[in-house]
Write a structure and sequence with these properties.
With about 290 residues, the chain is an alpha+beta fold. About 35% of the residues lie in helices and about 35% in strands.
Length: about 290
């Protein structure tokens, strides 16, 4: 195998599409808005790419993405990727290769994806209809009344302070103002208070792909389907704009979030790992 530096988005895209559900974020990074922050390396054999890795440098530590044959990823980690710290996005079967070179703290994650023909729109009206029974409890009636009083708004930079306040309760780990400027965000308001939001990490019109994220409901407003409503609004706009696949990454232990996404039409696809990796020093290599 030989190592090559990849700079042609067309060649990169061709390889990523062989693993499209796992490579959703990476394909989105081919968009010019993100491509400037990336480095791509490949392992070739018989003039064919066998493995590919990407470094995304606009975050600290840089994101490390890998797909393809394990032996090619091994070669790239040995010869090219020697950063002291990385933020991982790797398939389960590649973890042993990573752990030859890095100490890791892997977090089990799941890739889900929504295709246009599978979308099931959900709004306040449809949720109310879905909750009706012949004998509604007072609690159910109160929840319906609460949802009816909420206003849906497409968010912009003027809402930044409200988003920061909501995310202070435990969400939006990768949220930045640029996410709001370049992405699609919808929020539900009770009076002037933002109580639930859904948004994106990546929106690429050129690649016709988007990555959903930054979904959060205030702790006092959970259990009413608000995240489902906000997420549906984001997905509807993206699909109306011609996006052909919406991907997302979710913790495998977050059953509530997975159910929200499945209500809208997302399907489960690839189990994988995220997490931080720290390069082993020469002493650790010598002991192995």
């Amino acid at each position: 195998m030989k190592i090559t530096s990849l700079t042609d988005p067309n060649r990169i895209r061709e390889f990523l599409l062989t693993d499209r559900f796992f490579a959703d974020y990476a394909q989105g990074d081919l968009d010019p808005a993100h491509f400037q922050f990336t480095q791509w390396f490949g392992a070739e054999e018989d003039e064919r790419l066998r493995a590919l890795v990407m470094l995304y440098h606009d975050l600290t530590p840089p994101i490390f993405f890998a797909t393809g044959e394990a032996r090619g990823i091994d070669l790239l980690l040995d010869r090219v990727i020697q950063h002291p710290r990385l933020s991982l996005s790797i398939r389960e079967e590649h973890l042993p290769v990573i752990e030859k070179f890095y100490r890791t703290a892997p977090v089990p994650m799941l890739k889900m994806a929504l295709l246009p023909e599978e979308f099931r729109a959900t709004d306040q009206t449809s949720l109310r209809g879905g909750r009706r029974t012949t004998q509604q409890s007072p609690l159910a009636k109160n929840e319906i009344a609460s949802r009816s009083a909420l206003a849906m708004t497409r968010l912009n930079v003027s809402h930044m302070p409200l988003l920061e306040e909501l995310y202070s309760h435990g969400g939006g780990d990768a949220f930045r103002q640029r996410s709001l400027e370049q992405g699609v965000f919808y929020g539900l308001f009770e009076s002037e208070r933002l109580v639930s939001v859904a948004g994106t990490h990546i929106v690429s019109g050129s690649e016709r792909i988007a990555a959903l994220g930054n979904v959060m409901t205030h702790p006092n407003y959970r259990g009413q389907g608000l995240a489902t409503i906000a997420t549906s609004a984001v997905c509807k706009e993206l699909l109306d704009r011609g996006i052909e696949m919406i991907g997302l990454s979710v913790s495998r232990s977050n059953d509530a979030a997975v159910r929200v996404y499945e209500k809208i039409g997302f399907k489960r696809h690839v189990p994988f790992y995220e997490g931080t990796a720290v390069r082993k020093d020469d002493h650790e290599f010598a002991k192995e």
